[in-house]
Bifunctional enzyme IspD/IspF (Pseudogemmobacter humi), 387 residues
Amino acid sequence: MPQIPPDASTILVVITAAGRGTRAGDGPPKQWRDLGGKPVLAHTLAAFAGLPVVLTIHPEDRALAEAIAPGVPLVEGGRTRAESIRNALEAMAGKGFTRVLIHDGARPLTSPALIARLIAALDEAPAAAPALAVTDALWRGRDGRVMGLQPRDGLFRAQTPQAFHFDAILAAHRADRQGTAADDVELARAAGLDVLIVGGEEDNLKLTFPGDFARAEAILARRTGAPAMDVRMGNGYDVHAFTEGDHVWLCGVKIAHDRGLLGHSDADVGMHALTDAIYGALAMGDIGRHFPPSDPQWKGAASHIFLSHAVKSAAGQGYRIGNCDVTLVCERPKIGPHAAAMQEALARIIGCDPARISVKATTSERLGFTGREEGIAALATAVLVKE
């Protein structure tokens, strides 16, 4: 928790949470994804406990925001980050705020010490922002080739929160006609404001790419002393009816049979259930969300496409497959003679040891649609591990 100054009620915090975060990979917008057991944005809000906060949000996210930030003013964002922040500043103008911290909702690890330094810096200048000096060599490139060098002297990596005198940054936003500024320091400088550089922090990372979530988990674990391992489990269930044909695909293996399975793709019921189990562990819905059956491009598609996508989505969020268990429910064909081949096929697609894959079968004792041999059902469980 930041060290709250006596006049904390006059210091506003604007947190941006209206973006979609497409570079973070498949899944919900990054501010709503899980980090250490709660949404990223919940960590960000906690960093500013004790200070008045306003959130910029996407209209579709209002219910999510109200759930984790009850009583916090919510302002719908604009087409750009700059427009979103101006909307928030305008909404809070005239309410007695003299200073404002503007922060990315996807930076959940801001420290109390950094917040305190920024607030103190506003006693010396109308604006202050955290940054880290660039220490790596810099290249200019084109078409995958190095085209020249860029001196790194005097270059910094910008962070947030960025701190301002409230009226000064509001005036800078009102004077901006483009609404495309990369950050508020750009607008402050365009308005002639002096901006102090405050030492940033390596832990104050912005979650941008899938791998950033694993880094953030490790930082949280280090701070709390908790183990860095994160384990998730998902379940999947699928059914396909029999139709005319001479074979079925089950868990990546083609098996001769007197009938086929009906489906928009190759109807591999086992692989579909396993794919849904992985998506479920990631809270990413099911196959239909990612590969709609209404889309003709997936007609007759091989199911390994779906499973590979789910596995890549897991890897993109820093997870590996711990183990998988698939149960096929049918009277025929007999699964036992093919179970080992199914294990091998699934392991190749997933990229893991076959010993981590279980494929087994059961009958329904001649009960129900599987007992009447009208179709095949499959159940699957997947465990994902992040270390």
